[in-house]
Amino acid sequence: MKDLKEKILALKKEKNAVILAHYYQESDIQDVADYVGDSLGLSQEAVKAEADIIVFAGVHFMAETAKILNPSKKVILPDAKAGCSLADGCPPDEFKKFTDAHPDHVVITYVNCSAEVKALTDIVVTSSNAVKIVNSIPKDKPIIFAPDKNLGKYVMEVTGREMLLWDGSCVVHEAFSLEKLLDLYKEHPDAKIIAHPESETHILQTAKYIGSTAGMIDFVKTDSNHKYIVATEAGILHKMQQEVPHKILIPAPAKEDNTCACSECGYMKMNTLQKLYNCLLNESPEVTVPDDIIAKALIPIERMLELSK
Ligand code: 13P
Ligand code: SF4
């Protein structure tokens, strides 16, 4: 493993590549990355990238976003099949029919969607800026929010805005069991539950803090409690624990029928250290986006980056 990590670091230097990784990537991948972050941080980092090659250790929509922001650079993804249930659940042709049926609505989409869907969008949001961006829309403007209905419901609750929601969800965050979570909390009444807003309302109602992956890490760093039950993908525990080595972090439990005791994203975990090495070596699989889609999708992404400053 050490050998493979060293080979990746050498190859990265030789090819003038940068490795951007999401918090849900396996620990070994996070350890070789130049930057590990949430979706907003990764987009902001992609804008700054000066390397010739961006290795995106995340899922396909994230690599597409990096490509839209850097059309002249080569963007590669360790496993081209690393998708996302939210992006898959919002096919562009069906989404177009939905937006065409509501032409007076401002179209806001969560970054977890395809480049084609972003091209049909007015403003993109991530979990860390969705509330702020929805609040920036004039009160008299009706809003479509897609594709995550759980994040949408949460934003509606916080902002008090009615929004027309697309019926999509994250399979990982919907896998949390409320019953098991409450049992776990009974065992650890001194813990604070923290949750990602892709989780269902009944899970969010138990949480003392709700935020993006980066927001959750910041919260445990600045909060005075010593124990947390963490309701998001388990990969976050690697960096979170490094930030608070003296605190106790417990992953929120998944429902019985899930394959692991905690919630892991099968798409994120398609990337492995070996695939990362192979993709850097072969500069493949490459993520490409047609020029006309880049031109259209860039506008709502840049609006988001501007509103996130
Ligand atoms: P953030 O890291 O932006 O909170 O997003 C979580 C997620 O599910 C990414 O797919
Ligand atoms: Fe998509 Fe959920 Fe996996 Fe994030 S955790 S990539 S939203 S399936």
Automatic annotation (TrEMBL):
Pathway: Cofactor biosynthesis; NAD(+) biosynthesis; quinolinate from iminoaspartate: step 1/1. Binds 1 [4Fe-4S] cluster per subunit. Iminosuccinate binds at H22, S39, Y110, V111, N112, S127, H196, P197, E198, T213. It is an enzyme of class 2 (transferase). It catalyses: iminosuccinate + dihydroxyacetone phosphate = quinolinate + phosphate + 2 H2O + H(+). SUPFAM superfamilies: NadA-like (SSF142754). Its EC number is 2.5.1.72. Belongs to the quinolinate synthase family. Type 2 subfamily. This is Quinolinate synthase. The lineage of its organism: Bacteria, Pseudomonadati, Bacteroidota, Flavobacteriia, Flavobacteriales.
